[in-house]
Structure formats: structure tokens, C-alpha cells
């Protein structure tokens, strides 16, 4: 057996803070029980203040690089055929794991580049299977007036390191229902293969659920009696349980850091509306409902069973995992993440970060520091209209979790530490200029 711990990182798509039973959702509140993920939370660390970026692309770029997406230029989704994703000069979590001697696999949604040189197998993964962009595209081929002569047909793809990636089959409304099942089977085979070879592995499993169109596998259709969204939530819970079971069956639980989290706040498109529970807003906003998402980490004997409200950010995953696997973090560029390993394992009672800056695309929208939140631009709901504030809004998130009552006039002292964070970040940008979005390799 390998002496290095395995890493399994499952990222749900558009899973809001309030969907899971262990976060106040589940059967009674959301129509679908989530017993497998709830059990996972009862066996590890459940974060109540884990924060991400505004939507799919920026969060995934932050996860892969440990850098805020404003630095990498990967801060928005664009249609197929246009420059997108991470430049090859960016260094990824998968490359770090590979350099540390790990077998690496990506099964699921990539969304960080859809041309040769930018697929997962070009960026540190030994193998991959999934979608290069997003699930919106499953609607393309059945849309009125769709013309494959001028529009790209979406495909599920696959590739291996050192080989070109290739189309496998059309990604449409039918294959949307079955893709997560496929991802699980490929993940299980990957873990079994490397366990037998006593090789440590890094499995990155970015599931498709619960992204719209939120359609369940036929085996789960009608299961809850609460519609497609609840059925899909039940399926997602089952799929996560399949991975947990495989790890346990391989007797790898004590040797595996298992992380389950979401990429951003809840789905807002009808009829697949999600919920952020007690928080206001959805993804594409700077509200807490966009920033805070579920995060559960299990590592028996290493991570205690606990729940806390300390700030952790998605950029922290890369340096944290670097410390876990003995990887080396690059020192030739700013890395915004900090290792949270001593915090997660109980050696430190508080997080190693006090706050962070929150951008939507290239606009600084908010700063979060301790229990305070400062908004420079006010847009509480998607497409409500971004209102740049002459006098920022300040909220205390314990006293006012829904961000309803501005208290800046009584607490201007908070501007000091917050604006120092902004200045430090801008100074680093002067020293290491940001990559413009869409820049070619």
C-alpha cells in the first residue's frame, strides 16, 4: 500500500448551501433525503463558511491554480469555439499531484479550455472523461432552429496524457441523464486499478448534478414525487455514496482525504431553482448565497468530526493539498490560497485566513473580513442591475445574515483592515500583471 494519502475531490455543480439535509435541506425542506452525504458530514469536518467564486469557470480556475480568477483571466464562461480557460503557463493542482508521484484522473465537467493544449489531459491529468464546457449545451441539438453548420455540436470527450482528446458521443438531453452514472463507474475503476498497484491517486470528480437542465437518471425519475430537481438531488446523494462505498470496500478510508463541495451557489433558472438556505442570493451575485456552499472533508484519524463557521476559500485547496501530498507550490507567481491543513486536522482552532476579495469578472464587488462584508457594488439578484455604491454597504453577517441593514456609518473602523487587503492585492497585480481573458497560448 502507498505511504502517501489518496485524494478524492468531488465537486457538485450549482449545489446551494440549503439543499443537503446536513445543511438544513433534505427531504422535509427540499423534497429529497440526502442520507449518504449527511453521513459523510457526521464522519468529518463540515464547513459553514466555505467560499467560492461567482460561477462555474472562475471557481474551477481558482481550485486548479490556487489563484483568484482575476489573475488568470478565466473568470467567465464563453460559447464553444472562442478562446477560454487557463493558459498553458498556469500551473495546476493536477500537475502538482503528478509531479508528486500521483496517478491523476478527471471525470466530469472541466470548463477550463476546449482546445488541444487546454484539455485536462494536457494540464496534469493522466486521463479524463467528461465535458469540456457546460451542461447548458445539452439543449442545443433539440432547440428550435439549431444549425450544426454554424453552431458547435456538444460532445462528451475523453483523453489520455500525451494523446489528443477525442469526441465520444453527443452531449444531449438523453446523455445528460446518464453521464453522472458513467463518471462514477470510471472513478471506481480508476481507484481500484491504482489501489491494486499501490499507487497513490488524485481523483477529481466534478459531477454534472445539479446544473440545469437538472434531469435525473431514469432509475431516479419520479423517485421523490417532488419533480426532476429533487430526483436529481437524490441521485447525486446516491452517486456520492457509491464513491464512499468503493473507498471503504478497498479499505482505503484511513488513507484517503475525501472532500465533497460545490462550485458555486444555487441554480436560479426556473424550473430548477435551488436554495442557499439562510443566505440571500444565488450564483452570479456577491451575496452570501453565492459565496457560501457546502464543504465536507473526511479523513478518519486525521480530521475530527466537527462543524465550524471559520472562513475558508476555494483557493486554499491547492496549498492545503500540497501539504497533504508533499507537493511543491510555485513561487514564481502570486498564490492566493493558504494551507488549511492544521485547521482542518484540529491543530489550529481558527482558519489561516481572515478574509478575501470577491470579483465578478474584472470588477471588485465585495470584501469579506471576519464576520463583516463590504459591498462596493449592489446587485442582490441576478440581472437586477449592478449599482455602484458611492458609500459602500457594510453588513455584520452574524447579526444580519441576509445582508439587509447597512451599518457602515457606525463601524467605519472596519474600512481600515478591509481596504488594506484591497491595496495589498492591487500592489501584487502591479508586480505580476493579470492575464487578460481569452489570451491565446
Automatic annotation (TrEMBL):
Cofactor: Ca(2+)
UniProtKB keywords: Calcium, Hydrolase, Metal-binding, Signal
Domain named Sulfatase N-terminal: residues: 5-326
Pfam families associated with the record: Sulfatase, Sulfatase_C
Origin: domain of life: Bacteria
Entry annotated with the keyword Transcription regulation: no
GO molecular function terms noted in the UniProt entry: arylsulfatase activity; metal ion binding
Similarity field: Belongs to the sulfatase family.
Protein name according to UniProt: Arylsulfatase
Native source organism of the sequence: Paraburkholderia ginsengiterrae
Amino acid at each position: 500500500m502507498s505511504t502517501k494519502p489518496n485524494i478524492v475531490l468531488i465537486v457538485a455543480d450549482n449545489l446551494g448551501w440549503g439543499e443537503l439535509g446536513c445543511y438544513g435541506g433534505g427531504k422535509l425542506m427540499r423534497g429529497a433525503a440526502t442520507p449518504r452525504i449527511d453521513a459523510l458530514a457526521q464522519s468529518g469536518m463540515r464547513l459553514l463558511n466555505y467560499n467560492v467564486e461567482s460561477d462555474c469557470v472562475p471557481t474551477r480556475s481558482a481550485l486548479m491554480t490556487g489563484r483568484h480568477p482575476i489573475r488568470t483571466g478565466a473568470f467567465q464562461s464563453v460559447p464553444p469555439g472562442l478562446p477560454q480557460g487557463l493558459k498553458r503557463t498556469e500551473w495546476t493542482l493536477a500537475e502538482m499531484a503528478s509531479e508528486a508521484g500521483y496517478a491523476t484522473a478527471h471525470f466530469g465537467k472541466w470548463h477550463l479550455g476546449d482546445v488541444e493544449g487546454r484539455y485536462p489531459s494536457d494540464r496534469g491529468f493522466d486521463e479524463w472523461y467528461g465535458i469540456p464546457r457546460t451542461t447548458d449545451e445539452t439543449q442545443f441539438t433539440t432547440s428550435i432552429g439549431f444549425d450544426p453548420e454554424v453552431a458547435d455540436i456538444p460532445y462528451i470527450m475523453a483523453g489520455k496524457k500525451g494523446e489528443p482528446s477525442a469526441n465520444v458521443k453527443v452531449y444531449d438531453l438523453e446523455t445528460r441523464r446518464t453521464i453522472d452514472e458513467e463518471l462514477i463507474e470510471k472513478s471506481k475503476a480508476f481507484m481500484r486499478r491504482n489501489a491494486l498497484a499501490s499507487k497513490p491517486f488524485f481523483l477529481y470528480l466534478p459531477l454534472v448534478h445539479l446544473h440545469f437542465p437538472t434531469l435525473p437518471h431514469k432509475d431516479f425519475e419520479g423517485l421523490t414525487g417532488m419533480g426532476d430537481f429533487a430526483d436529481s438531488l437524490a441521485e447525486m446523494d446516491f452517486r456520492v455514496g457509491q464513491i464512499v462505498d468503493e473507498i471503504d470496500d478497498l479499505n482505503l478510508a484511513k488513507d484517503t482525504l475525501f472532500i465533497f463541495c460545490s462550485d458555486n451557489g444555487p441554480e436560479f433558472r426556473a424550473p430548477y431553482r435551488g436554495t442557499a438556505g439562510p443566505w440571500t442570493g444565488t450564483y452570479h451575485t456577491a451575496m452570501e448565497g453565492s459565496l457560501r456552499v457546502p464543504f465536507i472533508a473526511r479523513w478518519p484519524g486525521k480530521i475530527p468530526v466537527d462543524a465550524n463557521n471559520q472562513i475558508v476559500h476555494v483557493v486554499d485547496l491547492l496549498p492545503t493539498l500540497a501539504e497533504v501530498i508533499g507537493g511543491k507550490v510555485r513561487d514564481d507567481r502570486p498564490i492566493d490560497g493558504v494551507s488549511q491543513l492544521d485547521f482542518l486536522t484540529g491543530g489550529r482552532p481558527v482558519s489561516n485566513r481572515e478574509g478575501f476579495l470577491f470579483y465578478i469578472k474584472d470588477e471588485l464587488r465585495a470584501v469579506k473580513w471576519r464576520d463583516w462584508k463590504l459591498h462596493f457594488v449592489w446587485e442582490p439578484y441576478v440581472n437586477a442591475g449592478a449599482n455602484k455604491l458611492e458609500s459602500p454597504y457594510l453588513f455584520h453577517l452574524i447579526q444580519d445574515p441576509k445582508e439587509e441593514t447597512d451599518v457602515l456609518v457606525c463601524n467605519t473602523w472596519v474600512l481600515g483592515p478591509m481596504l488594506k487587503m484591497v491595496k495589498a492585492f492591487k500592489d501584487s497585480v502591479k508586480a505580476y500583471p493579470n492575464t487578460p481573458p481569452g489570451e491565446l497560448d
